[in-house]
Input
Amino acid sequence: MLRFKHNVHIFQITVGATPLLLIPMNPNRKALLVYNNSGGTVEILSNSGGTYGSGIPILTGNTYVNDYSPEGEYWIVGSGAGLDVRVEEDTQLA
Output
């Protein structure tokens, strides 16, 4: 059985009403989890040109998970300022 080594990176970001780069493109990323730990809604965007209301919403206390095709660049925007978001990135090591 072939096994791959993985690296898990967990971090916190503060999101506001201006789109923010959540995580850059990484071809070694195998999974991405985004948890909304704030009292407002945040949205996942595919680029910096997106606006609030045009992304995938993550309501308070909810999670976005992508383990199907997570390699791309992700952006995030919030319904207001000072929103607490937690991120877990799982990458495959060579």
User: Anything to note?
Assistant: The beta strands are 6-15, 20-23, 29-36, 42-45, 56-58, 63-66, 74-78, 83-92. The chain has a mean pLDDT of 92. The longest strand covers residues 6-15. Residues 33-82 form one domain.
